[in-house]
């Protein structure tokens, strides 16, 4: 899972969300699992409300629709994942250790994602067949953040000679982003079938494939 292992930077800035209360955390975690299991359209708000022991009036005081709840789940999951992973500042990657630093980050990310955590459902939410970035403002923000980070990483790599510069930067970024999304989609679909050691090898192989595309 490479394409969402980055800090959530929206439009060049870091979006800060108010930390959820324990009650809100329970609601978000329950909703994340419901969406990940049932999909967006078939997810049951009543099931979420019952599981959290809430009244409907209390729920609708917080969220006026299923879409609003979904977007809040994505925003909070992305923020929690960003905090856990602490993706490196792209500018700090420039130098002779560009690729080893990226590999160290991926290794750390795979280990972090192996820990039981509610926000681990983010990958599944991102590839639900019945919801898209066109429909979800939170997913658009997340995509923009990932895209911006990838472009900044490539710029840092090009500046130090670790990334080839024979292609226009914009084309190179599109190719890299498309490959990352394809890898991530496959990984999310097969994550539950892989043991930790297999996940590490797969992440390393994915980064190696990306490096063969991008390195001079």
Automatic annotation (TrEMBL):
**GO MF terms held by the record:** DNA-binding transcription factor activity; transcription cis-regulatory region binding
Please state every residue range assigned to the domain named HTH tetR-type: 21-81
* Xref: Gene3D superfamilies: Tetracycline Repressor, domain 2
Provide this UniProt record's keywords sorted from A to Z. Answer: DNA-binding, Transcription, Transcription regulation
Annotated region of DNA binding: 44-63
- InterPro entries reported for this sequence: Homeodomain-like_sf (IPR009057), HTH-type_TetR-like_transc_reg (IPR050109), HTH_TetR (IPR001647), Tet_transcr_reg_TetR-rel_C_sf (IPR036271)
Q: What is this protein called?
A: DNA-binding transcriptional regulator, AcrR family
């Amino acid at each position: 899972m490479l394409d969402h292992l980055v800090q959530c930077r929206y439009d060049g800035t870091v979006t800060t969300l108010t930390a959820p209360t324990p009650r809100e955390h329970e609601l978000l975690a329950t909703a994340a699992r419901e969406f990940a299991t049932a999909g967006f359209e078939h997810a049951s708000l009543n099931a979420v409300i019952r599981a959290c022991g809430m009244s409907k009036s209390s729920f609708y005081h917080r969220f006026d629709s299923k879409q609003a709840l979904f977007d809040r789940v994505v925003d909070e999951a992305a923020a929690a994942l960003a905090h856990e992973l602490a993706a490196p500042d792209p500018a700090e990657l420039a130098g002779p250790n560009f690729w080893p630093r990226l590999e160290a980050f991926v290794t750390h990310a795979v280990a972090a994602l192996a820990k039981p955590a509610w926000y681990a459902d983010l990958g599944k939410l991102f590839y639900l067949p019945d919801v898209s970035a066109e429909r979800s403002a939170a997913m658009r923000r997340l995509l923009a953040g990932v895209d911006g980070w990838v472009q900044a990483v490539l710029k840092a790599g090009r500046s130090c000679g670790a990334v080839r510069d024979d292609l226009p930067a914009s084309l190179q970024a599109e190719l890299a982003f498309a490959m990352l999304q394809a890898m991530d989609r496959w990984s999310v679909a097969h994550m539950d079938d892989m043991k930790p050691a297999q996940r590490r090898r797969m992440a390393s192989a994915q980064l190696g494939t990306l490096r063969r595309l991008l390195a001079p």
